[in-house]
Design goal:
Layout (H helix, E strand, L loop, with lengths): L11 E3 L5 E3 L3 H15 L1 H4 L5 H21 L6 H20 L15 H25 L8 H25 L6
Antiparallel strand pairs: 1-2
Helix pairs in contact: 1-3, 1-5, 3-4, 4-6, 5-6
């Protein structure tokens, strides 16, 4: 089976159930931004990172596939698990922050390669959050499950911020 279908050559794409919409549709923008966010985790995973961080990031990528399914209208059980996943992210954030110098100023998104990739991923996740909110504003999504998705994505950006600080500190930059 070829990878190309040619069905999108006219600037449209298919949602779950067969409905065709423009590729600029806010719903497509929302799940496309989540696709970008999950891909932005790849460069972090390509680094030498702790096993637990690798497991967390891989779980996030899997959750994001469920979120993309949800956003294109397909049935998924991922949304039912997002509250638990959000709480887990909070626990990880809290544990890492206890070992970091408390922030007293804004920090620049720089440092080690791993930290820099975390900051790029964080900003990509934030963009996916904005696209999702835009889609909600355009009333293109069923609101059931959206609170869980928004909370998860918001917490994920916090996790990536802390993870960036974590890998800078681990590699000698204690000010971040």
């Amino acid at each position: 089976m070829p990878i190309y279908t040619k069905t999108g050559d006219d600037g449209t794409t298919g949602l779950y159930g067969g409905k065709r919409v423009l590729k600029s549709n806010t719903q497509v923008e929302a799940y496309g931004a989540v696709d970008e966010a999950t891909s932005s985790l790849g460069p972090i995973l390509a680094q030498s990172i702790e096993k637990t961080d690798r497991e967390v990031l891989t779980a996030i990528q899997k959750n994001f596939y469920g979120v993309m399914s949800f956003l294109c209208g397909a049935p998924t059980t991922t949304i039912d698990r997002l509250n638990e996943a959000t709480i887990e992210l909070e626990k990880i954030i809290d544990a890492k922050e206890k070992k970091l110098v408390p922030l007293k100023r804004f920090i620049l998104p720089q440092g080690t390669s791993t930290s820099s990739f975390c900051h790029v991923a964080r900003s990509t996740v934030r963009r996916s959050e904005r696209r999702l909110v835009e889609c909600i504003g355009a009333s293109q999504l069923d609101t059931k499950g959206l609170e869980e998705v928004l909370a998860y994505i918001n917490r994920l950006s916090d996790y990536l911020f802390v993870l960036g600080r974590w890998y800078n500190r681990k590699n000698g930059d204690i000010l971040t």
